[in-house]
């Protein structure tokens, strides 16, 4: 598939796909006229790259992790890195859950104040 179709199917910009190629996270074949062509599996790979970026991994870490994720190839060092990234994400999830809990408390208190006629004013 061509770059525009991959961008549409994966829900990313063409610019993002070019960046992924520059970072060696994604590969394409070139037609005689120079157009990029991607395998159908590129859609899932782009979605994975997006998830890893959203989880806070930099492109260098994603590049190191992709062979394990895509091909199942893993060294003990890579498994340690994967475990460390998972632990970091778990901490991030805990922090987000805590922040959500605090927001829930603020919302509950503000709703109760509105019902009793009190107002929460910014400081």
From TrEMBL:
Top-level taxon of the source organism: Bacteria
GO terms, molecular function: DNA binding; DNA-binding transcription factor activity
Residue stretches making up the HTH merR-type domain: 4-26
SUPFAM superfamilies in alphabetical order: Putative DNA-binding domain (SSF46955)
Keywords annotated in UniProt: DNA-binding
Name of the featured protein: MerR family transcriptional regulator
